[in-house]
Amino acid sequence: MPKTNPSRRQFLSDVGCGVLVASVGATMATDLGLSKSFAAGPTPDALSFGALEPLVVLMQETPVNKLLAVLTEKLNSGTELRTLVAAAALANARTFGGEDYVGFHTLMAIAPAWHMSRELPSQQQALPVFKVLYRNTNRIQEQGGRKNEVLHTVAAAPGTQTAEDLRKAIHNKGANSAEKTFAALANKSTDIAFNALLESVGETTEVHRTVLPYRAWDLLDIIGHDHAQTLLRQSVRYCVKAESWGRYPDYDAPRTLLPKLLEEHHLLGRTPGDKSADDAWVEKMSQTIFTSTPAQAAAATAAALAEGFSPAALGEALSLAANQLILRDIGRTFRDETTNKPIGSVHGDSIGVHACDSANAWRNLSRVSNA
């Protein structure tokens, strides 16, 4: 009987299945039915993560009701918890690309779960991480797994690319061109690409747009900077997608207000000041931010930076102002009540919680971008 030559897709599918079987062991793979889960296989332009690839595939393809047993077995056989965290984050990024609501919320929970685990006794450290990893795999499979991956290999755009080129590509709603531009920036350096991305991220104050790049960057200490482009591409695609959303009044105000303030106060290209602030100054500034209009608060902050106050001092005032919103939150009204979110409850999607998330993200992003 003549042999047939397998297609490249079939070859990659067979390799992927073999890699995962080798990762968990033939007996466990059979028990889990993993040999059947690779029928679709990866596409020819699928991202691959080298030595982490078997674990990344495991996070995508293990039946969710078997996942915790598999992860426990991996830990018991010597795999470090941080390695499982890294694989889960890459599986999330490859699958969702920052475009799925539950998906990117899960991504944003991975680093906090890891940090929480560091505060627990050794025998309990896996608990917060496993909770997020379970949610991660469950959502990946709800969205179709490998056959519906959003991120694929991308070629860098030719020529010299700038932050302005990235912003234009985003404004034009071109995900492919924006990713190619970002890839070109990333080829220069991770820091250049990151700072260019932040110029587009800062064009609106929407919370997920702000928090996603911070949480992605926070994961690099766990995963390694070699994967920075993959994690930050999620924010590129998020910004592109946001260009198609409906706009409420003043949604785009930061696009014109922030450049204006930077020029007026001569902050462009200037090294941030290091002037410290006492408690009285921080309290006064926090009240100014809290009681002002958005434009007034931005102007007061720009003036303080021009005066030489450190970003850390202003970040403290900003966090205190955001916290005031939580302290004054009356909870959900009758109009906002939903299942598991009763009247009077203060859920994670409240203005106060989102304001604190954004303030925390920008405080940390400013430290990284100025490093």
Please give a structural write-up:
It is a single chain. This protein is mainly alpha-helical and 371 residues long. Helices cover 64% and strands 0% of the residues. It contains 17 helices and no strands. Helix 11 crosses helix 17. The N terminus is likely disordered.
Whole-number average pLDDT?
Answer: 88
From the spread of the alpha carbons, the general shape counts as globular
Q: Largest sheet, if any?
A: none
State the separation between the terminal residues, measured CA to CA.
Answer: 65 Å
- Structural class based on helices, strands and sheet pairing: mainly alpha
Number of helices: 17
- Low-confidence spans: 1-22, 35-40
**What helical percentage do the residues reach?**
55-70%
Total number of beta strands: 0
Percent of residues in beta strands: under 5%
Q: Kindly provide the radius of gyration, computed on alpha-carbon positions and rounded to a whole number of angstroms.
A: 23 Å
H-E string: HHHHHHHHHHHHHHHHH
